[in-house]
Amino acid sequence: MRAAVRRTVGVVVVLHGLVHLLGAAVGLAGAHVEAFTAPIGTLAGVAWLLAAALLLVAGVGLAVGWRQWWTVGTAALLVSQLSIVGDWNDAKAGTAANVLLALAIAHAVAAEGPTSLRARYRRLLAETLADVPTTPLPPVTERDLDQLPPQVAGYLRRVGVVGRPRPSGVRARMTGRIRGGADQPWMAFTAEQVDVWGPRTTRLFSMDATMRGLPADVLHVQVDGTATMEVRVASVLPIVRASGPQMDRAEAVTLVNDVCVLAPALLADPAIVWSPLDSHRVRGSFPTPTGPIQADLVVDEAGDLVDFVSDDRFAASTDGREFTARRWSTPLSDPGELGGLRLARSGQGWWHPAEGAFVYLELRIDELEVL
Question: In which band, very low, low, confident or very high, does the pLDDT at 1 lie, cut at 50, 70 and 90?
């Protein structure tokens, strides 16, 4: 829906620009256009032509998703409205299109400008990627797997980590849908996530969603165990701001899940304490800055990871101010090639409250880059 609105407004701006060519034709070529009853001078004709060119560039940029289209759009708005004011009696109707353009520019500045969540994500992303070591980490060996429970060792062999360097991080792009509760509407989204493990373990998650027809920007940030989450509707109105020890704990569980699903080579870490439960299930105790996280990993007969279950996560209220301890699971499916490994490409997120479990998240990983 967000893309459809963007393209529609972009087309309107392009058409608005084409109309400006009429003013340019009158002023520069002396053409007769019935809509213009008053004469237009050469200088005014140049202004109409310049406005047309700027509007065409801005409209096309908006339609195709150029992030900085609003910089050209702002210049187009100014030149266009000055031209309209100069021939107000004949051209004043064009102000309506400029009002729409002004609203689109205001939203673009809020969405992409220096105070936006996207701009903050880009700054943090640049800092995080700069910290990724350039020297490959030691590869996973069969000797490493010999120290693991058969369920975990089988999974690591299945995904193909043996002989490959341990990752310093991953960068994933995904699509899906999410909702706030069992009775809430679904929201489609696209997202990018970056995890980096090392001296400054970092998790960044940026989501573009559509909430009841309105765009919503979401940003999760976790650095060295301290986590925050913010949601803004239409890139302007903050409706969720979450932080604190329980938020830190919740994001720590999510980061453990990321290791299991996206960077399984790190499961060979001797600091993880394993307790086999049955032939398909094993419990791990994962050290984190918030304290040990316990989670059960479930593998199928082929050795693929098919579920992750933890009782150490917290569910946030709709405004992010309250947290409730709740079982969390992420059933996985569709294993295939991702980042050179055999990994699950689709998954769900489930909450398990006393009144009944429900799925709140469905996603597909479209691209995975190993850092």
Answer: low
Model confidence pLDDT, tens digit, residues 226-285 = 999 999 998 889 999 999 999 999 999 999 999 999 999 999 999 999 999 999 999 999
Q: Which amino acid is at 369?
A: E
Are residues 176 and 243 both part of a single domain? yes
Name beta bridge partners: 274. Answer: 284
Which residue in the block uniquely carries the two structure tokens 């353009």? 101
d(CA 98, CA 150) in angstroms, rounded, equals 66
Do residues 18 and 35 share a domain? yes
Identify whether residues 68 and 152 lie together within a single domain: no
C-alpha torsion sign, points 92, 93, 94, 95: positive
Of 81, 112, 143, the domain-final residue: 112
One domain for residues 76 and 196: no
Of the candidates 129, 203, 194, 134, which has an alpha carbon nearest to the alpha carbon of residue 165?
134
Last residue of one domain, picked from the residues 53, 86, 112 = 112
pLDDT in tens, 355-366: 999 999 999 999
- Whether the predicted pLDDT of 136 surpasses 90: no
3 pLDDT above the threshold of 80:
no
Instruction: Check whether residue 38 and residue 10 sit in a common domain.
Output: yes
Provide the residue range defining the domain that includes 88.
Answer: 2-112
Judge contact between 94 and 82, C-beta under 8 A: no
CB-CB contact of 331 with 348 (8 Å) = yes
Q: Which of 120, 202, 176 is nearest to 345 (CA)?
A: 176
Partners of 267 in the beta sheet?
none
DSSP H helical ranges for the chain: 2-29, 42-64, 69-86, 88-91, 94-112, 117-130, 142-146, 150-159, 245-262
